[in-house]
Design a protein that fits this description.
The complex is a heterodimer of chains A (113) and B (113).
Chain A: E1 3-6, E2 11-14, E3 19-21, E4 23-26, E5 32-38, E6 44-50, E7 56-59, E8 62-65, E9 75-77, E10 86-93, E11 102-103, E12 107-112
Parallel strand pairs in A: 2-12
Antiparallel strand pairs in A: 1-4, 3-9, 5-6, 5-10, 7-8, 8-9, 10-11, 10-12
Chain B: E1 5-7, E2 10-13, E3 19-24, E4 31-37, E5 44-50, E6 53-57, E7 64-68, E8 74-78, E9 87-94, E10 103-104, E11 108-112
Parallel strand pairs in B: 2-11
Antiparallel strand pairs in B: 1-3, 3-8, 4-5, 4-9, 5-6, 7-8, 9-10, 9-11
Classes of the chains: A mainly beta (113), B mainly beta (113).
Chain lengths: 113, 113
Amino acid sequence: GDSVTQMEGPVTLSEEAFLTINCTYTATGYPSLFWYVQYPGEGLQLLLKATKADDKGSNKGFEATYRKETTSFHLEKGSVQVSDSAVYFCALGPAGGYQKVTFGTGTKLQVIP
Amino acid sequence: ETGVTQSPTHLIKTRGQQVTLRCSSQSGHNTVSWYQQALGQGPQFIFQYYREEENGRGNFPPRFSGLQFPNYSSELNVNALELDDSALYLCASSLVQGSYEQYFGPGTRLTVT
């Protein structure tokens, strides 16, 4: 079945550092890929998405490129801020059928001043 | 535009009891999905409702059941509660067409003692 593997955290960075959170997936067909963010005490918010190979999703300075050849969707940001501290989830939606979204286990990011 | 809302925010139940959680979809969305998020884990898909019928289910026992109403709001019912049912329950709404983009509510924190 479909699955998502993302790097374990927590990841601790200083403000203005470069961020990479790795994500790889296993799925049949051509899934849509997502990054969701969860701030403390809140629900999930969609951060960015990509629906086909080589698409780049971007939002709030975060970027991720859909790489079908490596089945990856790594999240990057050039300069993190304290306000980026949260848990980040990589996820995929199947190419067909009902809209089950499969999530990774999440990576906690802590940015220190 | 009204976002996804869930009630109650927190709930404490005793093992063996039954619980009902409620969700109101984002305006214009006709599909509702429910997820269980255990502490420190990614959300796990429970089931999805479209046009008042269940059209997809994850690996959860029958004591997890749901309803969707004509206004697209939804309920999640859990019978015979077990300690392992303690989790954050997330509701997400979406349009059935499109790129599987789901909008999440803030969740209901259920504690089973």
